[in-house]
Design goal:
Helices cover about 30% and strands about 25% of the residues. By secondary structure, it is α/β, with parallel strands linked by helices.
Length: about 800
């Protein structure tokens, strides 16, 4: 029988494959064994750390693909590089006798680890080794190096490293044992799980081959591998994290398992040591001990029904503090803006049968992230426990020793109805309500007592049931509910895209289909629907149903967007700019000589006070200065920093500000104008001759357009709102310089003021709706009168 052995092409991988071939030839001389080299992603990319290659199994995937195709029969790997479980359709043979599992140092000059000088530089590609070496000696400097064993040994001299850390097994297999300067005690540097053990991977159906490989296994090595890899599987570790596990026999016949686990940033780590006589139980005990020491807290947060303003105060506070947020499809995307800039955000949305992650994978992700981060938020649409599988997630965390909190959310079953003008209960009409999920795990109509529902007068609310609407209506009527009972279907409840259809129960299916209502949708049945005409506050807002576009500067939601949304509009934001601060410092003595400080934007206010505080100064240094601002909004931002504006022009424009300054400036006055680097000098030209006028460039309004900034189907927008000339310039860039025909009609393009309007006219816009007052309130006012 001929077998092809697949391996990577490095010297070490080939040495390992040749050792396997020679062992098999000796044990089974009647078989032929051929070695085939397979190049993997990990071999091809040598200029990045392993944790930046973007996937697990970077040294094995291609070999596994060849196994599944049948071009090779045995894959030879280092077991420490392998995930906890083989790929689908593959299996591992039992472990053969392991090589020396310890880590070692190859030193350039020093005689031992202890003799390394303070500040010595050690090269390693392993976060696990780096973390533990620093724990043993925090005076060391760890640098990342990649490459095969020969490359790493060469870098020792080329980069003048003091040492490189490697596995003893690799050096021994390459015949380089003489290069080992010192061995690292496994109690000081715990090796990688299964270090020194080869993984022999085959197709699951190759039973005879597995029997031959298993016959050569070493029971002690298999025992140790089961314990170490059991810990790896239980803790959820991978090549991105520092994970170590080492099992060895004790004198009394038991085994001791030492383990270490840390987070990706290396900011926290925990150790555990357990003793026993069952490898699987040892692994479970070690996992629980590590979790008790290291795990952060998971908070299950209800995001509310869709309107980001409906999250609870406590839920919003949890988002602001989170290190990691795991969110689903029904959580309002705007809520993520409340998180810190460095917060990791992971989407795990589920829609019908299209799941980003299965529920089981989400559960595992929660545990894994709890081990990496201190504060993990699981953000779920609506309420955590109302048909959201939050209970399953809580139980999974509990069973694995992960601490968790629950912050309830407002359920769409009540809020969605309220936003459609339907009270879920009302005196004299409905004294109670039923809320049920409309389908079961098999995606069939749930086991619902329609007879009880049909006899009562309570409001009926069906969640996640749009596809079951015909059956629901039919079953209720069959159970005795009058066919003319009012019914409603609410699409995307509490959002600006909300749509509501009402009809008699017998007609609601056809009406819903005709309206093209889609998921997510609520189904409501009951007489309270008759109150909708008088209580429909949301859909009667003046801009409800309007689709608007707001180009903005910076990542935060624009105040204009908030104002338009409050009036019922659905607003898309396009980030066209970002603010980059100059980080300058002020001289205290010169600042005290300044008579006027002029500010014309929120960004100017923020930039000025950033620089003031960075200079070691505060508002006491401003006692001799007066402040002039361009408008009420800038005055409000200034007041938030503890300073009241001395001059605000009646009309909020640059021209009006210049005229107001002319009335108060004296020739000896020193004026500082805090401005953006790309702002024009029209203010200086207007008043510079009346005083000592200095332009202080405190920030830059930088272009933030990217590949995803193209405006698709511009005709779908009922209005576009521009708040500055730079946003107008960049909007045209996003449009490739072409004005959509639909945007040339009246009531489509809205400008905050003359300068912005002038810029738009330069590009060929004709029907520009300009605010009478250069404020968001002014823009909103003109929108309410002119938008169509």
């Amino acid at each position: 029988m001929k077998y092809v052995i697949g391996t990577r092409g490095s010297k070490l991988a080939l040495a390992q494959a040749e050792a396997v071939r020679d062992t098999l030839k000796k044990a089974y001389p009647g078989n032929d064994y051929e070695i085939q080299v397979i190049h993997t992603k990990g071999d091809l990319i040598q200029d990045k750390p392993l944790d930046q290659l973007g996937s697990k199994g970077v040294f094995i995937k291609e070999i596994e693909e060849e196994l599944l195709k049948g071009t090779v029969d045995i894959g030879v790997h280092s077991m420490k590089d392998m995930p906890a479980s083989p790929a689908e359709g593959l299996a591992f043979a039992k472990a053969w006798k392991r090589e020396d599992p310890r880590d070692v140092l190859v030193l350039r000059e020093a005689g031992s680890f202890a003799e390394l000088p303070a500040g010595a530089v050690i090269g390693t590609g392993s976060k696990r080794r780096g973390l533990q070496l620093l724990k043993a000696r925090d005076d060391l400097r760890i640098v990342d190096i990649r490459g095969n064993v020969d490359t790493r040994l060469r870098k020792l001299s080329e980069q003048k490293l003091d040492a490189v850390a490697l596995a003893a097994a690799g050096l021994n297999r390459l015949g380089l044992a003489e290069r080992i300067s010192c061995y690292l005690d496994p109690d000081v540097v715990i090796p990688a799980p299964a270090q020194g053990i080869l993984a022999l991977e085959i197709r699951r159906e190759d039973k005879n081959l597995k029997e031959e490989l298993d016959a050569l296994h070493d029971p002690e090595t298999e025992w140790e591998a089961t314990a170490e890899r059991g810990f790896l599987a239980g803790i959820g570790g991978d090549c991105h994290l520092p994970v170590g596990a080492f099992c060895s026999p004790e004198e009394d016949g038991t085994h001791r398992l030492r383990c270490v686990f840390g987070n990706a940033r290396g900011t926290k780590a925990a150790y555990a040591s357990v003793t026993g006589d069952d490898p699987k139980l040892l692994a479970e005990q070690a996992v629980r001990k590590i979790r008790e020491k290291l795990a952060g807290k998971v908070t299950l947060v209800g995001a509310g029904p869709g309107d980001p303003g409906l999250i609870t105060v406590k839920g919003l506070a949890a988002l602001k503090e989170a290190d990691c947020v795991i969110y689903d499809r029904l959580a309002a995307p705007g809520l993520l803006e409340a998180t810190r800039e460095d917060c990791e955000k992971i989407y795990v949305g589920k829609e019908n049968h299209h799941h980003t992650l299965r529920q089981e994978e989400i559960n595992e992700l929660l545990v894994r992230k709890a081990m990496e981060a201190d504060r993990v938020v699981r953000l779920k649409g609506g309420d955590v426990y109302v048909f959201g599988r939050g209970g399953e997630e809580g139980l999974y965390l509990y069973e694995r020793g992960i601490s968790f909190d629950v912050i309830p959310g407002i359920s769409s079953s009540m809020a969605g109805l309220a936003y459609a003008g339907i009270p879920i209960t009302h005196r004299g009409i409905a004294t109670g309500f039923h809320v049920v999920t409309a389908h079961n795990r098999k995606d069939e109509l749930a086991d619902i007592d329609f007879m009880a529902m049909a006899r009562g007068t309570d409001t009926l609310v069906f969640l996640m049931g749009l596809g079951k609407l015909p059956e629901i209506a039919e079953r209720l009527i069959e159970a005795g509910m009058p066919s003319d009972t009012p019914a409603a279907v609410i699409e995307k409840a509490t959002t600006s895209a909300q749509r509501t259809v009402t009809a008699a129960l017998s007609e609601i299916t056809d009406k819903t289909r005709e309206a093209g209502i889609g998921s997510p949708a609520l189904i409501v049945v009951g007489k309270v629907i008759g109150l909708r005409e008088r209580l429909n506050f949301f859909e009667n807002k003046p801009l409800f149903g309007k689709k608007l576009l707001v180009p903005k500067i910076g990542e935060q939601t624009s105040g204009l967007t908030e104002a338009l949304t409050e009036k019922g509009a659905e607003v898309d934001e396009l980030q066209v700019g970002r603010i980059e601060y100059a980080d300058r410092t002020f001289d205290k003595e010169k600042l005290e000589r300044v008579n006027w400080i002029v500010l014309t934007s929120k960004n100017g206010v923020e930039a000025f006070f950033r620089d003031l505080f960075a200079s070691g100064l505060d508002v006491r240094s401003l006692a001799g200065a007066r402040f002039a601002v361009i408008g009420a909004r800038t005055a409000d931002y200034l007041y938030q920093h503890g300073v009241k504006a001395d001059l605000v022009p009646e009309k909020f424009t640059g021209k009006a500000l210049a005229e107001a300054l002319k009335n108060v400036l004296k020739q000896k006055d020193l004026v500082w104008y805090i401005k953006a680097g790309n702002a024009d000098s029209s203010l200086k030209e207007a008043v510079g001759g009346l005083c000592h006028f200095e332009e202080i460039v405190a920030y830059e309004n930088m272009d933030a357009l990217g590949e995803d900034s193209r405006i698709e189907a511009p005709e779908r927008y009922d209005g576009v709102f521009l708040t500055c000339a730079s946003s107008a310039d960049r909007l045209m860039e996003a449009l490739d310089g072409r004005i959509p025909e639909a945007w040339q009609k009246p009531g489509k393009i809205f400008s905050i003021g003359p300068k912005c309007g002038e810029c738009l006219r330069k590009y060929g816009f004709e029907a520009i709706e300009e605010a009478s007052e250069s404020t968001y309130a002014g823009l909103l006012e003109v929108a309410l009168h002119r938008i169509r």
